[in-house]
Write a structure and sequence with these properties.
Layout lengths: L1 H12 L28 E8 L7 H14 L4 E5 L7 H5 L6 E2 L5 E2 L1 E2 L5 E3 L16 H13 L6 E7 L6 H9 L4 E6 L5 H14 L4 E12 L6 E2 L7 H7 L4 E7 L1 H8 L12 H8 L2
Parallel strand pairs: 1-7, 1-8, 2-6, 2-7, 8-9, 9-11
Antiparallel strand pairs: 3-4, 5-6, 9-10
Helix pairs in contact: 4-5
Length: about 280
C-alpha cells in the first residue's frame, strides 16, 4: 500500500499535465474529453462561472458573445444552466431547435448570428420547471456539445450553473475549456464566493482569465454620480488576494435591463465588457 502511494506521489511530482503522453494511473489524471460532433468545428471555449447564483453570469456570457460577434468572430453560446436558463430570453429566441442530419441538432441563431443552445429551446412550455436529477442534467450538457452541429465557431462561451455542482464539474471535465471568467458582486461574502470558483478551477487545472464585478454601482440620472448601492467595490482587493486579473465593473443600468427584457441585448452598446473581451479574444 505504501509502495503504491509512493509511486503515485512520485508520478504527481513529475507530472507534465499532458495525460495524452502519460501511462501513469494517478489521482490527478485528466478524464477523457467528450468528442465533438464530426460535423462541427469549435475553436476556443470559455466558461463563465461564480461560486453562487444571481451575480450575472448569463449577462456576462451574453455581453461577451455580442462583443465577440461584433469583432467579426463566429460566436456561440452553450447554456449549461439547465435548471435556470435565461440566455434565450435575452436574445429573443423561442421555439424548438431544428433537427440536423444523422440524429443531430442545429443551434438557434440570434439576429446577429450567434449560435445558441439552451434547454428552453427544447421545451414547448418554457414555464415548466426542469425537475431532473444531476446525472440527467449533466447528460444534457454533454449532448449540447457532442450532438449539436456547431458551424465553424471561433469562440464559444458557456454559461455555467452557479456553484460547484455536478453540472459545472461535467463542463470542466468533459468539455475542452480553455479558460474561465469569474463573475462576482460587491457584497461582503464575495471573497468566499470567489475562493470557491478559484479553488475548483485550480483543482481542475483550468486557467482563469480574470474576474469581473457586476452590480458595481448605479449612476444618478441627474448628476451622474456613481452610487455603490450594494456596497463598496472590492474587485481590486479580491483580484489581488487571489492573483487574478480584474476585468471591469458592470453597473446597474436600466437601459441594459430593458433590452434584456425585450430580448434585444444585441442592441446594447457600452464599454462595460471591453476589457474582458480584450483578454479573452487575445488568446
Amino acid at each position: 500500500m505504501d509502495e503504491n502511494k509512493d509511486k503515485e506521489i512520485q508520478n504527481e511530482e513529475n507530472c507534465t499535465h499532458d495525460c495524452s503522453t502519460c501511462s501513469a494511473n494517478c489521482s490527478g489524471r485528466a478524464p477523457q474529453k467528450d468528442a465533438l460532433n464530426p460535423l462541427s468545428r469549435v475553436g476556443k471555449v470559455y466558461g463563465i462561472v461564480s461560486g453562487k447564483g444571481g451575480v450575472g453570469k448569463s449577462l456576462v456570457t451574453s455581453l461577451l458573445a455580442v462583443e465577440s460577434q461584433r469583432r467579426g468572430f463566429s460566436t456561440a453560446i452553450l447554456d449549461a444552466d439547465v435548471t435556470g436558463p435565461s440566455i434565450p430570453k435575452m436574445f429573443g429566441l423561442s421555439g424548438l431547435l431544428d433537427a440536423g442530419p444523422d440524429n443531430t441538432m442545429l443551434p438557434a441563431v440570434t439576429k446577429t448570428g450567434i449560435q445558441t443552445v439552451s434547454v428552453n429551446l427544447l421545451m414547448k412550455d418554457v414555464t415548466q420547471p426542469v425537475v431532473w436529477r444531476g446525472p440527467v442534467i449533466s447528460g444534457v450538457v454533454k449532448q449540447f456539445w457532442s450532438t449539436v452541429v456547431w458551424d465553424d465557431v471561433d469562440y464559444m462561451f458557456i454559461d455555467c450553473p452557479p456553484g460547484t455542482s455536478d453540472v459545472t464539474l461535467t463542463v470542466f471535465q468533459s468539455l475542452p475549456v480553455d479558460g474561465l471568467i469569474i463573475v462576482t458582486s460587491p457584497q461582503d461574502l464575495v471573497s468566499m464566493i470567489v475562493a470557491k470558483a478559484v479553488n475548483m478551477a485550480r483543482v481542475m487545472r483550468i486557467p482563469i482569465v480574470g474576474v469581473i464585478e457586476n452590480f458595481s454601482y448605479a449612476k444618478c440620472p441627474d448628476c451622474g454620480k456613481e452610487i455603490e448601492i450594494f456596497g463598496k467595490s472590492r474587485l481590486d482587493e479580491v483580484a489581488k488576494e487571489y492573483a487574478l486579473t480584474p476585468l471591469g465593473r458592470i453597473p446597474v443600468d436600466p437601459r441594459l435591463t430593458a433590452l434584456c427584457d425585450k430580448g434585444a441585448i444585441e442592441l446594447f452598446e457600452n464599454d462595460y465588457i471591453t476589457k474582458a473581451a480584450d483578454a479573452v479574444l487575445a488568446q
